[in-house]
Amino acid sequence: MGELAVCQKGDSLRTLLGSCLGVVLYDRRLKLGGLAHVVLPCGSGNAELPGKYANTAIPELLRRMRLLANGETLRPVAKLVGGANMFNSSGSSATIGEQNIKAVVMLLEEQKIPVVARHVGGEQGRRMLLDSATGLVTVEIAGLDPTVL
Fold first, then answer.
1. d(Cα 32, Cα 44) in Å, to the nearest integer?
2. Whether pTM exceeds 0.70
3. Quick one: CA dihedral 91, 93, 98, 100, positive or negative?
4. For range 47-63, the mean pLDDT
5. Start-to-end C-alpha separation, the chain
6. CA-closest candidate to residue 80, choices 118, 106, 46, 111
7. Residues 98-121: what's their mean pLDDT?
8. For the residues 85-113, what does the mean pLDDT come to?
């Protein structure tokens, strides 16, 4: 939880999500991707876990991807997974999952990074896997067939 990583050319990244949001950034031309496990929408910038908060995860993911790109122009797209309402609250305030989704989408819009796929919301946790060779994200929910984004 709260971690992030980047990979390229055939490596893969995976995580398990509930109300947390898995944010994948992927550049198809460079076969370069990153995954952040966002726990909360906003934080003070804990240097030990920059992936924990949306407002620190997106900039750090981009920074690490640019390092791997070796001067090449980065053209990422985003895929979002998770953000479930794990505790079935029916109150009027937004759940943590909804807050995470909203914060990440706003930050991606500011960076002009399009969200090309989403598998968010609901009430069940998910597993996700990013394949950096293809940019495909496989999403699994217990008892259901996997979905590929």
1. 28
2. yes
3. negative
4. 90
5. 22
6. 118
7. 96
8. 84
